[in-house]
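Renewal narrative, Specific Aim 1. Our central claim is that a sequence can be written position by position from structural information alone. The example that follows is taken directly from our test logs and has not been curated for this report. It begins with the C-alpha cells describing the chain, in the order in which they were read.
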C-alpha cells in the first residue's frame, strides 16, 4: 500500500499528465486543505482537493475520475459489498447452458432491489449496490478482467422505466408534465448508476493492473487539449461552443494586422492647417483613419480519410467564422476540389454536413487519395475569383500528397493575391517531412502552424497579434 505522500504526489502528477494545470504552489495549498479537513470524510477530502486544484468546470470530470482511482472508496470487494455466498451469480443452468437474465430469478431479485433504489433516490445505497453488482456480474467468463457490459446486461436499468413510472404516477394522467419530470428524474438516476458501475469497474481494474496504467486508458484529456481527430459527437458539440470566442478573436486579430503599419489617405486640410505653425512648411502630415471592415475568408480543407476527423473541426471553425467575416467561402479537396459552403447553412448539424459532404461533394478526380498538387490546380482554375486583396486564406491539412506534384508556383500566386495566408497542420510537428509529407516546402510559401487542439488554436491566434 502506497503511503499518503506517494498517493498525493502521484495524484498531482497524473492530473498534470492528463492536461490539468496544477502548479507546485497549488499542490502545497492542497496539502494545507487536506490537513484542515482531515482524512476520515472522503467527500470532504475530494472537495478540499477540488477547491485547490480545479480551475475550470470542464476539468472536474477528469479530476473526479482520477480522484476515485487514487483515493478509492473501497479495496477489493469492499466492506458490506461481498456477494451473498448462498446466492451466487448464475451464468449457466444445470446443463451448462447460458442462463438469460430475464429467466434467472436471482437476477430479477437484484433488478427489484435496483428499482427500489432508483425510486427512492438513495445515492449511498445505489453506490453500494453498484459495487455489489460489479462483484457479481462484472467479470469476464474466465474472470480475467472486469467490464461494465455484464452488469448492464444483467440489470438492464433502462427497462425498469415503466415500473418506476407506474410507481410514481398512480392515478395521474399520463403524458403530461408530471410524467416528463419523472422520466427526466429517473433517466438521471439511471445515468448515475451507470457512472457508478463504470467507476467501480475502473477501481477493480486499477487494483489488478496498476493505477497509472488504468488512468492512462480511462481518462480522456480535457477539452482544450483533446485532439480534434479523436473527438466524439458530444465533444464536438462542446468544441463548437469553445470555438466561437476563438473565432471572434481570430477575426479581430486579422483586422488589426490589416491596420498595422498602413496609413489612411492624406488629410489635406489638417496638414495645411498644421503647416501654418511652421511658416507654411508641411513638416507633419496628417492622414485620415482607415475604416475597419470585416475581412473576407477562404477556407481550403483537406477532406481525405487521413484527416477526416480533423475536417469535422474545420467545419466547426468555419461555422463560427462565418459570423465574424463579411464573406466566408469554404472548399474541400481530396484529389479534386469543390466548394462546400452550401453544406453548412446556419443551424446545420456538423455531422450531417459531413455526411452530405462525403456523398455530394465532387472531391475525387481519379484515385480518391490526397493529391495536393492537382487539388490546388483545380481550385485555381475554377475558383480564382475567390481570392482577392481583401481575402484571408486559411488552409487546413496534413500536407501529405502521396508523393505527387505540389503545384508550388500556383500556390505562390494564390498567396500573393491574398491579404493574409496561414496553414494549420493537424499532425504533430515531429512527423512533418516524414514519408510523403511536404510540410516544409509548403511552409516556405505559407506560414504553417501545428494545430491539433484548442490550446494550439489559441496559441496560433495569439501569434497573429
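The sequence written for that structure reads:
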Amino acid at each position: 500500500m502506497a503511503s499518503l505522500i506517494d498517493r498525493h504526489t502521484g495524484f498531482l502528477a497524473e492530473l498534470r499528465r492528463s492536461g490539468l494545470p496544477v502548479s507546485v504552489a497549488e499542490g502545497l495549498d492542497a496539502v494545507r486543505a487536506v490537513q484542515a479537513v482531515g482524512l476520515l470524510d472522503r467527500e470532504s477530502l475530494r472537495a478540499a482537493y477540488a477547491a485547490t486544484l480545479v480551475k475550470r468546470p470542464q476539468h472536474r470530470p477528469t479530476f473526479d475520475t482520477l480522484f476515485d482511482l487514487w483515493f478509492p472508496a473501497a479495496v477489493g470487494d469492499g466492506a458490506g459489498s461481498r456477494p451473498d455466498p448462498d446466492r451466487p451469480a448464475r451464468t449457466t443452468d444445470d446443463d451448462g447452458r447460458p442462463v438469460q437474465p430475464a429467466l434467472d430469478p436471482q437476477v430479477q431479485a437484484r433488478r427489484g432491489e435496483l428499482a427500489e433504489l432508483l425510486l427512492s433516490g438513495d445515492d449511498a445505497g445505489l453506490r453500494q449496490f453498484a459495487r455489489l453488482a460489479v462483484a457479481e456480474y462484472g467479470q469476464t467468463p474466465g474472470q480475467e478482467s472486469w467490464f461494465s457490459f455484464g452488469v448492464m446486461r444483467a440489470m438492464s436499468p433502462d427497462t425498469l422505466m415503466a415500473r418506476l413510472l407506474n410507481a410514481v404516477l398512480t392515478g395521474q394522467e399520463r403524458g403530461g408534465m408530471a410524467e416528463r419530470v419523472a422520466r427526466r428524474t429517473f433517466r438521471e438516476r439511471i445515468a448515475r448508476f451507470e457512472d457508478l458501475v463504470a467507476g467501480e469497474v475502473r477501481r477493480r481494474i486499477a487494483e489488478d493492473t496498476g493505477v497509472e496504467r488504468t488512468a492512462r486508458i480511462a481518462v480522456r484529456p480535457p477539452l482544450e487539449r483533446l485532439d480534434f481527430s479523436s473527438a466524439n459527437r458530444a465533444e464536438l458539440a462542446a468544441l463548437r461552443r469553445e470555438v466561437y470566442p476563438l473565432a471572434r478573436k481570430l477575426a479581430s486579430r486579422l483586422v488589426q494586422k490589416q491596420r498595422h503599419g498602413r496609413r489612411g489617405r492624406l488629410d489635406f486640410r489638417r496638414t495645411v492647417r498644421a503647416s501654418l505653425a511652421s511658416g507654411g512648411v508641411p513638416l507633419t502630415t496628417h492622414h485620415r483613419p482607415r475604416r475597419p471592415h470585416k475581412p473576407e475568408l477562404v477556407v481550403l480543407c483537406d477532406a481525405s480519410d487521413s484527416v477526416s476527423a480533423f475536417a469535422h473541426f474545420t467545419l466547426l471553425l468555419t461555422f463560427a467564422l462565418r459570423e465574424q467575416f463579411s464573406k466566408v467561402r469554404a472548399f474541400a479537396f481530396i484529389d479534386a476540389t469543390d466548394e462546400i459552403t452550401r453544406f453548412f447553412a446556419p443551424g446545420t448539424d456538423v455531422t450531417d454536413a459531413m455526411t452530405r459532404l462525403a456523398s455530394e461533394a465532387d472531391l475525387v478526380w481519379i484515385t480518391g487519395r490526397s493529391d495536393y498538387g492537382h487539388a490546388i490546380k483545380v481550385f485555381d482554375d475554377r475558383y480564382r475569383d475567390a481570392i482577392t486583396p481583401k481575402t484571408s486564406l486559411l488552409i487546413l491539412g496534413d500536407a501529405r500528397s502521396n508523393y505527387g506534384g505540389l503545384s508550388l508556383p500556383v500556390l505562390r500566386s494564390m498567396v500573393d493575391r491574398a491579404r493574409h495566408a496561414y496553414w494549420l497542420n493537424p499532425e504533430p510537428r515531429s512527423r512533418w517531412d516524414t514519408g510523403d509529407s511536404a510540410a516544409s516546402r509548403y511552409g516556405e510559401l505559407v506560414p504553417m502552424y501545428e494545430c491539433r487542439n484548442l490550446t494550439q488554436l489559441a496559441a496560433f491566434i495569439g501569434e497573429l497579434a
